[in-house]
Amino acid sequence: MTTQTGSTPATGSAPAAGNRRLATDLRQYGILAALVVIIGLFEVLTGGRLLMPGNVNNLIQQNSYVLILAIGMVMVIIAGHIDLSVGSAVAMIGAVAALAMSEWHLPWWLAVIVSLLVGAVVGAWQGFWVALMGIPAFIVTLAGMLLFRGLTLIFLHGGTIGGLPNEFVAIGAGWLPSWLGKVGRVDVLTLVLGLLACAALVALQLVARAGRRRLDLPVEGAASFWVKIALAVVAIMAVCWQLANYSGTPIILIILAVLVVAYSFLLNRTVFGRHVYAMGGNLFAAVMSGVKTSRVNFAIFVNMGVLAALAGVVSTARAGSAVASAGQNYELDAIAAVFIGGAAVQGGVGTVTGAVIGGLVMGVLNMGLSILSVDAAWQMAIKGLVLLLAVAFDLINKRRGGR
Amino acid sequence: MADQATILRMQGITKDFSGVRALDDVSLEVARGEVHAICGENGAGKSTLMKVLSGVYPHGTYTGTIELNGAEATFSDINASEAAGIVIIHQELALNPLASIAENIFLGNERAARGVINWDRTTIEAAALLAKVGLNENPSTKVYEIGVGKQQLVEIAKAMAKDVSLLILDEPTAALNDEDSDHLLDLIAGMRDHGITCILISHKLREVRRIADRVTVIRDGHTIETIDMSSPDATEARIIKAMVGRELNNLFPPHQPTIGEEKFRVEDWTAHHPADPSRVVVDHASFSVRAGEIVGFAGLMGAGRTELAMSLFGRLYGTGISGRVYKDGEEITTATVDDAVAHGIAYVTEDRKRYGLNLIASVTTNISAVALSRFARWGVIDRNREYLSAEDYRRDMNIKTPSVSEVVGRLSGGNQQKVVLSKWLVSGPDVLILDEPTRGIDVGAKYEIYGLINALADQGKAVVMISSELPELLGMCDRIYTISEGAVTGELPRAEATQENLMYLMTMGKEAQR
Q: From A137, A157, A264, B388, which residue has the greatest number of CB atoms within 10 Å?
């Protein structure tokens, strides 16, 4: 049933394929390179203050909720939607968590579970309108933005609820205890966790590589493989070293690490993740291939609601109190992070790691400009320009690559 | 020295794309007032040549010269070429469906004074242009209310509003039924009366033969020859030979069918229009297919062929659907795509870009899309197995791609079609419904697809083939049903079917039955 020319195109155009792979690699690593450049730039401008242990710690704790939101948002955007309500959802769920502890006198852990459940309900509400009623997500979540903000004000009677338990506050502003003691000022547990993460990374990469080799699949060249791993290990250990020199491992870093790994896996390796990409890439083709689009859309919004709830818990914990103005503009920060991280406005493209790196770009900008005492108004203007340039750069790149 | 008989002379046109030579010393000479066809396989360089001509690739990005009306033309963009009287009408129509015919005709070329539109003048001139192209519609009718055939005429009226002297039509009849095609071809043939020279890009040699005065064949970026269609040896076989560089003795691969038991039967299938439930779109249709058999569905555009297939396949089309479906003699339900796939039914869409493929994803991802669960355990995909399977299909189906990681949108139409076919074969179907499987792909790739279809039938699969091209049905099918106004109006074994009796059943069918 075949003609004999099957192998010619593959071998004949091997160099071209190599070039193209290099081009996509560059695009993929472009945003990472941008992050490194921005870090380097501010490190120089601030005279080395940007990467001091305390600042590295704050970078993680201050940006954690935006990163959590960005992880949910990237799925929403890949599927071709948008969620404008997450900032209001963060505020409302923060209020619910505070109420649960101070009014209903629930233990902190039960309050967290209740918050996440409320988040799931919020997501199910929006998912119902988007996935089952077919209302565009832009409208549904714009309505949600107003609705949840209004409910927050109602729950808090316009006031503030403070005096939250220490265990709860630790979620956003605490560290793992120094179970393994300290050597000088350095927390040993943090370094051990860093080493474990590196070991896991190396092991997973080697297993995947061996698997591909066993099946005679093309594998990456050994040099670039090991250089990449070495760079990752150096980066992980550098961050851990700075953290160990401060107060140890922020609890939120553990949560973030678990989320990044879990959601990367979900999007890259599971049928569900594949369906999310398929819907964003070509909705009609996805339907005709048997993807249950309303189910997937519903799940995406429920998931976004739960992650918004987690972000609400974390930001309330870090602030130590629930206020009606919490979460203001978080949706825009999360959306910006996702697009800076290489997601496409039309959907179908985007990664969890990209979104996290995009969020870090914004975070480093914030912190660097703050250290330099740049006026808050200018900070906002600069962030706006960075978002525009990042997306413009990506589109121009794609246009050139598409030829 | 101006040469009145020649409107366009392109000489030694060479165009490179980052090291790949798309056009190599191509020359084209078009006589004033003629219909000049350009033929070539997909990827031969036809569109690139037309983009050079119309300034999409501006002067300086190619080498060679363009002479228009005897003077050298150096277009910097498409506006410059339009000002010189060159207009391209693309295969995909570029009309705004929500605007009126008149608004579309003068879009970007408004009848206005100081930015204020003169609506009376717009309407009157639009009506005059519509009369010229033989379209009997009110200029204020919205474009979405008229059919594709009429929309094509609006495009031509739009071009004429720009004082076109050289009109380029890219596959103008690709989306039209035979009747609309005929009308359009007559119109093109009569263009010289309006002082318009036409360049026609077409895969349909029948059309070329009918209206072209001369044909230039391009292959792999080279001009092969220009054939004068009035000469006695200007046959379709000669054009095909020039296009593919080899003798195609048979347009269809030889095939000896082995037909077995009945595999798939549909009885009394009825479906209504989703927007207008009182309108019957599929009307008590019944048919059957046996294992190893290739059964054709002939019908004009809008006869309900695709609607029949899509309402059968997971009820993707229509409301108020009724009827019975049998597989291997047992009644089954196909109410969702999953049901249909689980019963071993596959539907390969007629519109691969819109319904068939995720164009921004890789070949691998597209091939595994339907039967993803075959590569997954507990919802986790084994990407190595997925990759290996894609490699197998690349080899078996002869998909020409640098690698299976390539983005599908970069492949040629024929190769994209092979990816769509592969995607459905992964699900292991034994009933294949192929809707226009060779639409918009070149002669060589068509022949390959035919071979693949025959091979699938030989594996004992039941194949339903829907096609607008009667020769294709006659060349491929063991049995042909005709469909008209949603009803099955006839059934002919291959030996008895001719273009004439099929066309009779397709057009007169319902009356003939009564």
A: A137
